[in-house]
Amino acid sequence: MRRQYRAEGLLEAELAADPVQQFTRWFVDAQHAGIDEPNAMIVSTVDRAGRPSMRTVLLKGYDERGFVFYTNYESRKGREIADNPHVALLFPWHPIARQVIVTGTATRVGRDETAGYFRSRPHGSQLGAWASAQSQPVASREELERRYADLATRYPEGEGVPVPPFWGGFRVSPTSVEFWQGRENRLHDRLRFDADPTAPTGWRVDRLCP
Fold it and tell me: Would residue 2 show up in a list of annotated catalytic residues for this protein?
C-alpha cells in the first residue's frame, strides 16, 4: 500500500508571515477540496506517568491566541491537561497530502466564552454534555439513554439548558506549527514555525528533512 504524492510543493517564499495566516490558507484549501470535517484534529496528551493518549475532536475556533476545542474537564484528556498542559494537535488532511502539526500549551477558555459556544450548540448536544460522564464507565447503553431521556424531560426543546460546570473549552497556544506537504519519492516539504521573540514576526521558520 503505497501512493506517490505529486502535489505542488511548499516553498519558504510562499509562506504567510505567521502560522495562523498560513493555517487559514490551508484550512480554506481543505474546505474547497471537499474534505469531510476539515476541522477534525487529533489531540495528544500525556498522563502523570508520561503515557500518551490520543483522540479526535473538532476545532471550534482559532485566532492569534491559539486553537480552541471543547470537552468535559473531567474526561481523560481534561484530567491529563490539568496535570500537564503541554499538548499536540494534528490535522490529517490526507486527500490533499497535507498535515498541520501544532505543539503548545493548553489553558481553559473563560466561562463567558464557553457559555457563548454552549448556547450555539444543538439542543441535543447540550443535553448530551450533561448526560455523559465522559471517559467514565457506564453500565449499559440503556443507562446512558435513560440519563438523556430524563434530561430531555427536565429541559424540553426551547427551554434553556445551563452550562455544565464540568464542561468547557481549552485554547492551545502554539509554540510551534509545522506544515507538511507530501511530495514525490517521499521528499516531502516540512516547514515549521517556531516561536522566537527575537524574530521580526515573532516566529522563526525552519525547513526539516522529510
Answer: no
